[in-house]
Amino acid sequence: MKHEKRLDIEALRAALTEVADPAKAGPMQAYMKSSMPYLGVSAVPLQKLCKVLFADLHWVDAAAWQADVLALWHQARFREERYAAIALTALRSARPFQRFAALGLYEGMTVSGAWWDYVDVIATQRLWAVLCNDPAPFKQAMRDWSRDDDMWKRRSAILCQNKAKSATDLDLLYACIEPSIESKEFFLRKGIGWALREYAWTDPDEVQRYVDRNAHRLSGMSRREALKNIKRMSTSPEF
């Protein structure tokens, strides 16, 4: 049996500081409109660092894994530490824990993170993994999230099938869109368009039909985003 090896937060912080470029920190914080400061570690160095530091991590159970993720998330002093916490949820060694019981973890990160750079990764990757493993309870939870007062939970419910392609449950997708279809919130409008655009790669005719049926309710942004791929495909040369 493989021995447990837990996250060393201080070692992670030291490694992040070592590869940081302080000159980038201010512009990164401004771009993301973040109240939490940055160290100045861009995406590629962060990914490489996490790959090395997290390579041998192993947890005896889901509770230990969640404890490490939440410790890093809640104790984060810089935004890159929260990115690392999200990376911690994506490890191969964490795959057995991507079950419905993890939904509370992702809900907490979504609500407390409350910005697209956190929310979209969790929604399109981690929630998708839970959906694949425990579809029945997860689908009902997403229907509930789609009607929640929290905008980011609504957006997450809309985006959770972005990687599904032909496995997309259209009833679920449309049910999650419906409570927000006439919303004036930018991130909900954009999310609806993004989710439909992704499915258009699989079934452009269905997306066109849906947009046509709901043209009077969908925002212009949602319609434009939804139909981008369809227009691109229709103008591509045939071979």
What's the short version?
The chain has helices spanning 9-19, 22-32, 43-53, 62-75, 79-89, 103-113, 116-133, 135-145, 151-159, 170-177, 186-200, 204-213, 220-234.
Class by SSE composition? mainly alpha
* CATH-assigned fold name of one domain: Leucine-rich Repeat Variant
CATH hierarchy: architecture of one domain: Alpha Horseshoe
**Mean pLDDT score:** 95
Percentage of residues assigned to helices: 55-70%
Low-confidence stretches: 235-239
**Cα distance spanning the termini:** 54 Å
Q: What is the alpha-carbon Rg in Å?
A: 19 Å
Order of helices and strands: HHHHHHHHHHHHH
Largest sheet: none
Number of helices: 13
Beta-strand share of residues = under 5%
Could you say which overall geometry the principal axes of the C-alpha atoms support?
globular
Counting DSSP E segments of at least 2 residues, the number of strands comes to 0
The CATH class of one domain: Mainly Alpha
Structural account:
- The longest helix has 18 residues, at 116-133.
- Helix 6 packs antiparallel against helix 7 and helix 11 packs parallel to helix 13 (220-234).
- The protein has a domain at 1-96: Leucine-rich Repeat Variant.
- The protein has 239 residues and is mainly alpha-helical.
- The model is unreliable at 235-239 (pLDDT under 50).
- 65% of the residues lie in helices and 0% in strands.
- It contains 13 helices and no strands.
